[in-house]
TrEMBL record:
Name of this chain's protein: Ribosome-binding ATPase YchF
Family: Belongs to the TRAFAC class OBG-HflX-like GTPase superfamily. OBG GTPase family. YchF/OLA1 subfamily.
Gene designation: ychF
CDD domains: TGS_YchF_OLA1 (cd04867), YchF (cd01900)
UniProt xrefs under HAMAP family: YchF_OLA1_ATPase
Species, as recorded: Candidatus Shapirobacteria bacterium GW2011_GWE2_38_30
Cofactor (UniProt): Mg(2+)
Binding positions (ATP): N12, V13, G14, K15, S16, T17
GO MF annotations in UniProt: ATP binding; ATP hydrolysis activity; GTP binding; metal ion binding; ribosomal large subunit binding
Domain TGS: from-to ranges: 271-354
Reported function: ATPase that binds to both the 70S ribosome and the 50S ribosomal subunit in a nucleotide-independent manner.
Coiled-coil stretches noted in the UniProt entry, renumbered to this chain: none
Leader sequence segment: none
Transmembrane segments: none
Length: 358
């Protein structure tokens, strides 16, 4: 399960600078003018995970494969994008292909950087949300018009949910924030709505604000979704080695880089977690949905593992480390055998037993 996060915002709020910093290299054009990003830049980064080298040392393997996240730097949106302004439909199409959206808004002052369309963080978000809502209303209206005279379709659950979505969108509500049943959510997914994408907000702050990040407050409606981050500082960090990064973060009074906090927020937003496989050939992190069953987790490795699932042999990370591996944990009675109904826990270390003939 690869996670794809689209970086979205108005022009010149720091999207491409942040994208480059997260990837640790110069990929996207971060020039000081609107629409310097035309086609989306795509980059893959490893999920920072300090458990992997610990496990590799225990099982004596040189090969470590972390989970990955794909970041997509999407061209700057402007008011009127839904009607084709700026890069219009091209921008909106790129969003559809991402699992989650990271909205980047500007909360720094720099007279040397053009403030194209940006007013304040809340105002920026309202512009972006309005454009996404307008585009989704087009999608819903098209469906309703095509099916309103069809007796079979206009009484269907999908048609009813379309009417509910239209009413809610017209009131300025995002589809992802609606209180819907599991069945309704599945119907909403059939429309591929932009406002149905899970999202969080990266507020690009200046260096002085970042140094006091623990006390950062922002007058914004979705503050629980906010991550304060400094694209400038992250850009500096990307040029340091691990020791220099650690020292610099300590000077700033923070324990984690922006990349780590962004990925944690993305996992939280999408309801994801990791589990591990650990053997002489490789130590690897796998990304799964929270509450995934053992067969579903096995299917992330290979569909044959899920189809022929017999059981999962599981040790918690803490037990694995304390007893120094599979045999030590087994001797201590810490190895568990779990069946098809087991729901995976964060940091489970697993070996799957399966029958390939099923």
């Amino acid at each position: 399960m690869n996670l794809s996060v689209g970086i979205v915002g108005l022009p010149n709020v720091g999207k491409s600078t942040l994208f480059n910093a997260l990837l640790g290299k110069q990929v996207a054009d971060a020039s000081n003018y609107p629409f310097c990003t035309i086609d989306p830049n795509v980059g893959v980064v490893a999920v920072p995970d300090n458990k992997l080298p610990v496990l590799a040392d225990i099982v004596k393997t040189p090969k470590i494969t972390p989970a990955i996240v794909e970041f997509v730097d999407i061209a700057g949106l402007v008011k009127g994008a839904a009607q084709g302004e700026g890069l219009g439909n091209k921008f909106l199409t790129n969003i559809r292909e991402c699992d989650a959206i990271m909205h980047v808004v500007r909360d720094f002052s720099d007279p040397n950087i053009i403030k194209e369309g940006s007013v304040d963080p809340q105002g920026d978000l309202e512009v972006i949300f309005a454009e996404l809502i307008i585009k989704d209303l087009e999608t819903i209206d098209k469906f309703i018009i095509q099916n309103q005279n069809n007796p079979k379709e206009n009484k269907s659950k999908k048609f009813l949910i379309a009417q509910k979505l239209k009413q809610s969108l017209e009131q300025g509500n995002l589809a992802v924030n609606l209180d819907l049943s599991k069945e309704d959510i599945e119907l909403v997914q059939e429309f591929f709505l932009l406002t149905a994408k899970p999202y969080f907000i990266a507020v690009n702050v200046d260096e002085d604000t970042y140094k006091n990040i623990k006390n950062y407050k922002l007058n914004i409606k979705d503050f629980d979704r906010v991550i304060p981050i400094s694209a400038k500082i992250e850009n500096d960090l990307s040029e340091f080695d691990d020791t220099e990064k650690s020292d610099y973060l300590q000077e700033l009074g923070v324990n984690e880089s922006g990349l780590e906090r962004v990925i944690q927020k993305a996992y939280q937003t999408l309801g994801l977690q990791s589990y591990y496989t650990a053997g002489i050939k490789e130590v690897r992190a796998w990304t799964i949905s929270q509450n995934a069953t053992a067969p579903e987790a096995a299917g992330v490795i290979h569909t044959d593992f899920q189809r022929g699932f017999i059981m999962a042999e599981i040790i918690s990370y803490n037990d694995f480390v304390q007893h120094q591996g599979w045999q030590g944990a087994k001797d201590a009675g810490r190895l568990r055998h779990e069946g098809k109904d087991y729901h995976m826990q964060p940091d489970d270390i697993v070996e799957f037993r399966f029958n390939v003939t099923k």
